[in-house]
Amino acid sequence: MASDDFHEKPFDEATLMKLEIFQLYTREWLPVFLARELEYAREVHLYDFFAGPGADVNGALGSPLRTLTVLKEYGQQSSLHAWGKVPIYAHFSDATLWKAKRLDSVVKSPPWQIAGVSARASRAEFAEAFAAAEPILQARNMAKLLLLDQCGVSHITPEIFQKLISFPRADFLFFISSTTLQRFREHPNIRHKIRPAADFNQVHHAVLDYYREMLPKGRRYYLAPFSIKKGSNIYGLIFGSAHPLGMDKFLTVAWSKDGLNGNANFDINRDALDPGEPMLDLGAVTRPQKINVFEEALENALRQKRLHNEVEVMELCYQHGMMRKHAGPVLKRLRDEGAIMLDFQWPTLEHLEEPRPIHYQ
Q1: Which H or E run contains 319?
Q2: CA-CA distance, 293 to 323, in Å (whole number)?
Q3: Whose CA is closest to 247, among 349, 146, 143?
Q4: C-alpha to C-alpha distance for 44 and 170, rounded to whole angstroms
Q5: At 245, is the secondary structure helix, strand, or coil?
Q6: Residues in CB range of 361: below 8 A, 6 or more apart
């Protein structure tokens, strides 16, 4: 194996950040399908297509063992009603033979045996593993979570992206070196992928915009970014879900890791603010730029009477990468002013089918 192999070194802080985000989201995602038995979730499948050997050289857990850690926690807690009734499958693959063999040996060892969970690792190139998984990924009565921790930019092609957003009940997170796109944007294999961002800090948002433009018109689908800075490079993840609950849970994780903007491990907007400060009640000059931009957009939409119910408010929140509660101050101010009438503080997920209306004066 190569001496400079990624897994032959300790994970750096940026890698640990992305691993933690995936682990936290897995913890949020599983109860959606296992809190009770559901007709549309007869099986649960978790895929990790670039799994690695399971840990770094110092034993820090990689993504597959973090997945199993979450599963073990829930199995020991017995807090999920459908646990043991709904089969759970963890599919790990890697293109490098020694990594796949080592990981398969680890997941089959006694410490990682979890009742109700079937886990295995295999050697496979991404294209091969993805094609083999497609029958399950296309099934409507199974829940799927996909992690695609690619190196570079080559694997998530437009064709793969279109498949990812078409799979029913399948959330995904994929990682991408946004800096690669920025630095080598004139290379013929990369130039067509992304327009350059005006601000280097925002390069990952430009990547998100590129993928958003590939969404079919008229279809609701939720995408969100999280940028991770490592030295002078910027990496990041793209999250995708067809359901607002998936987006809601991802934003909960993202804002827990970045209290200023909910989308980076650095001061992405150069606000120079203390993340420990309470942000929702600060003056406009000293608040994060992202919150100011969102509140202005929400207020304008309401004053122009373009939003008619709480789901439309929620959609605007998600478009700006904001949690539902962030709409509260604007809704309260306009309600107190008499510009709108409504009976909710901020949008909830309990009324998706029959959202509560907004009335205008």
Answers
A1: helix 310-319
A2: 14
A3: 349
A4: 10
A5: helix
A6: 338, 339, 340, 341
d(CA 331, CA 345): 7
Kindly tell me the number of DSSP H helices and DSSP E strands found in the chain: 11, 9
Q: Do residues 33 and 42 make contact, with C-beta atoms less than 8 angstroms apart? A: no
Percentage helix, strand, coil for the chain under 3-state DSSP, each rounded to 5: 40, 15, 40
Give the C-alpha separation, 170 to 349, whole Å.
Answer: 19
Task: Please name the residue that has the structure tokens 């604007």.
Answer: 330
Q: Report the DSSP pairing between strands 117-123 and 340-341.
A: unpaired
Buried b / exposed e over 287-307, threshold 16 CB at 10 Å, is bbebbeebbebbbeebeeeeb
CA 34-315-361 angle, to 5 degrees, is 130
CATH topology of domain 289-360: Arc Repressor Mutant, subunit A (1.10.10)
What are phi and psi for residue 103, nearest 5 degrees?
-65, -40
Q: How many residues are recorded in the chain? A: 361
Q: Which H or E element spans position 230? A: strand 222-230
For residue 203, which of 181, 188, 184, 186 has the smallest C-alpha distance?
181
Distance from C-alpha of 51 to C-alpha of 55, rounded to nearest angstrom: 10
* Close Cβ partners of 205 (under 8 Å, ≥ 6 residues apart): 197, 225, 227
CATH 3.40.50.150 location in the chain? 6-257
Distance, in Å, from the CA atom of 106 to the CA atom of 12, rounded to the nearest integer, reads 22
* CATH number of the structural domain 6-257: 3.40.50.150
Residues of the chain with CATH 1.10.10: 289-360
Report residues of the chain scoring pLDDT below 70: 1-7, 151-153, 181-202, 204, 266-287
User: What was the pLDDT predicted at 279?
Assistant: 46
